[in-house]
Amino acid sequence: MLRQLLVGGGVSVVNIAIHALVMTILVWVARAVSAKNKSHPAVFLMAIMISTVSVLMAAHAVEVIVWSLAYLIVHAVPAGGNLIYFAFVNYTTLGYGDIVPVERWRLLGPITALNGVLLIGWSTAVIFEVLRRTLERTETQR
Length: 142
Known about the structure:
The chain is mainly alpha-helical. Helix content is 75%, strand content 0%. It is elongated and about 60 Å long. The termini are far apart. The model has no long low-confidence stretch (mean pLDDT 89).
């Protein structure tokens, strides 16, 4: 069990670092971007939100790939199992259960789910912060 916790914790820390980097860049860009002199604030807001959510989706996809690489390295998925599918199912807490990890790595699934839930929640908070900042700047420019 300790081995599973160490591997799961290590992969979680790598994903947290990836997410922190992406979040820092997104918040920095949100601070730097101004709605000043924008003739169509609604279009500007849509562009900012589409960009933000797209970057976050890409970050989550990278994090799922990190989990799938960890599963590959430790041989956590039975032969013939799709690593990325399995990682996505765990990360998003979908939990179909059609692929289960090998017995000695069974704890990685819940650790992956916990990591995914926390990072998705963090993304949601940043989406609202970017929206708030963009709306604030748009309103003060009127």
